[in-house]
């Protein structure tokens, strides 16, 4: 912060006018750039290994898209959506998740013609008005993988494998998969009734939300985080006892595939994932020492029918990137394995400064990263800047060097300093960086 901005900030503070980000919406700051760069790079790398194409859908969608697909009695739709009217009078929502938009796009653009099944991934911000807490923001970022157009258990396993590939590439190796099946619309009906019978006996102990959900959507009681509802949940009927033959076979096939691939998992009969569009397999990744899951997903074979009037089986997952940053920090895992050394360019006179831009461009053309602080006058303050960005090499150009056609290279790692000819600049730097 320079002296000038300090004063400006102070006067704003005095008037109580210094702007702050909105509660629950965080800035992603330069200090965390390595995390986000590695998310983008790893996402593209893993996706191309697994044959997923990139897709990006708008942040704003019709509010009814989410209300229909996520479900009117879910926490997301009831309490967490940012819904508003546009100046044109349309009711829109900031997307609370990525799957509904991807399916909307799949149906709108007939993407089944592109490949079958369609394998896509997205990475972007989502919005939910939740209580902010560790790893949970109101604007947060998700990486999602979706496979649309096939109901085979093979693809449930493939989504899980692609996610694990992503986690492993980041250095997260100790994840446990929690998994459950929610059945199909036939067998879930019987389970729903059982659940309704069970919770009806404890109606007085349920929270007001769940009392209301009891009639319309008893499955959602299993998501409820109220202590009294959570206690009741532990004794509730087990959905796996109600699966029909087809759903049972599908779930067995998924478990066999993930066992064959050495994936650690735990059956969790109360895992329901908070969204109505899921059926059959649902899953979540957790890790010891973390109070939150790092991502989850499942099958959504009925979603296309709900929003597009045709049946298109699909399965997907979304991973919470802020939560992954948190996990990497807690576990002390650095996102970039090997940092490239950085070159800092210092110029002492006005003439040297003028000349330095062209020299830096030469280095950059050879893919050598160079930074500078040419707005600063003294060598001392430029060296301070070099120190701040943790440069390995400093190039110093002064009047004498211009006259001689040379430049000084100072290696901050060893303290060694020498004069080299400008003609040899690129090769000399390359030698020292290798
Ligand atoms: Zn079934
Ligand atoms: Zn409740």
From TrEMBL:
Protein's gene: hisS
Chain ranges of the Aminoacyl-transfer RNA synthetases class-II family profile domain: 49-341
First-tier enzyme category under EC: ligase
GO MF annotation list: ATP binding; histidine-tRNA ligase activity
Subunit text: Homodimer.
EC numbers, comma separated: 6.1.1.21
Coiled coil: none
Cellular component annotations (GO), alphabetically ordered: cytoplasm
SUPFAM superfamilies on file: Class II aaRS ABD-related (SSF52954), Class II aaRS and biotin synthetases (SSF55681)
Pfam family, one: tRNA-synt_His
Protein name from the UniProt record: Histidine--tRNA ligase
Family stated for the protein in its record: Belongs to the class-II aminoacyl-tRNA synthetase family.
Compartment(s) where it occurs, according to its Swiss-Prot or TrEMBL record: Cytoplasm
Chain residues that bind L-histidine: 97-99, 128, 142, 146, 273, 277-278
């Amino acid at each position: 912060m320079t002296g000038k901005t300090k004063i400006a900030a102070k006067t704003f503070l005095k008037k109580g006018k210094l702007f702050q980000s909105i509660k629950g919406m965080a800035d992603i700051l330069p200090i965390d750039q390595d995390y986000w760069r590695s998310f983008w790079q790893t996402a593209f790398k893993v996706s191309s290994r697994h044959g997923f194409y990139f897709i990006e859908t708008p942040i704003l969608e019709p509010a009814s898209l989410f209300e229909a697909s996520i479900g009117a009695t879910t926490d997301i739709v009831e309490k967490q959506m940012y819904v508003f009217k546009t100046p044109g009078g349309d009711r829109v929502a900031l997307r609370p998740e990525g799957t509904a938009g991807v399916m909307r796009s799949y149906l709108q653009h007939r993407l089944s013609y592109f490949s079958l099944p369609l394998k896509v991934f997205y990475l972007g911000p989502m919005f939910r008005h939740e209580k902010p807490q560790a790893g949970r923001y109101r604007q947060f970022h998700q990486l999602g993988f979706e496979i649309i157009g096939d109901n085979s258990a093979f693809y449930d396993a493939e989504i899980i494998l692609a996610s694990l590939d992503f986690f492993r590439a980041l250095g997260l190796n100790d994840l446990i998969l929690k998994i459950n099946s929610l059945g199909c619309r036939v067998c879930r009906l019987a389970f729903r009734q059982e659940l309704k019978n069970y919770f009806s006996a404890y109606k007085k102990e349920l929270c007001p939300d769940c009392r209301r959900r009891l009639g319309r959507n008893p499955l959602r009681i299993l998501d409820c985080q109220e202590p009294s509802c959570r206690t009741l949940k532990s004794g509730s009927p087990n959905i796996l006892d109600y699966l029909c033959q087809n759903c049972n076979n599908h779930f067995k096939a998924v478990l066999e595939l993930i066992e064959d691939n050495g994936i650690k998992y735990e059956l969790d009969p109360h895992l329901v994932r908070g969204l109505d569009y899921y059926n059959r397999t649902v899953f979540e990744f957790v890790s010891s020492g973390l109070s939150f899951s790092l991502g989850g997903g499942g099958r959504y074979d009925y979603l296309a029918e709900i929003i597009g009037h045709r049946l298109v089986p699909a399965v997907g997952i979304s991973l919470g990137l802020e939560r992954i940053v948190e996990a990497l920090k807690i576990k002390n895992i650095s996102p970039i394995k090997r940092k490239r050394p950085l070159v800092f360019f210092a110029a002492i006179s006005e003439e040297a400064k003028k000349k330095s831009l062209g020299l830096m461009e030469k280095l950059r053309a050879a893919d050598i990263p160079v930074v500078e602080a040419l707005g600063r006058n003294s060598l001392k303050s430029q060296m301070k800047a070099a120190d701040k960005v943790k440069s390995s090499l400093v190039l110093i150009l002064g009047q004498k060097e211009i006259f001689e056609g040379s430049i000084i290279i100072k290696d901050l790692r060893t303290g060694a300093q020498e004069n080299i000819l400008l003609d040899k600049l690129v090769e000399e730097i390359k030698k020292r960086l290798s």
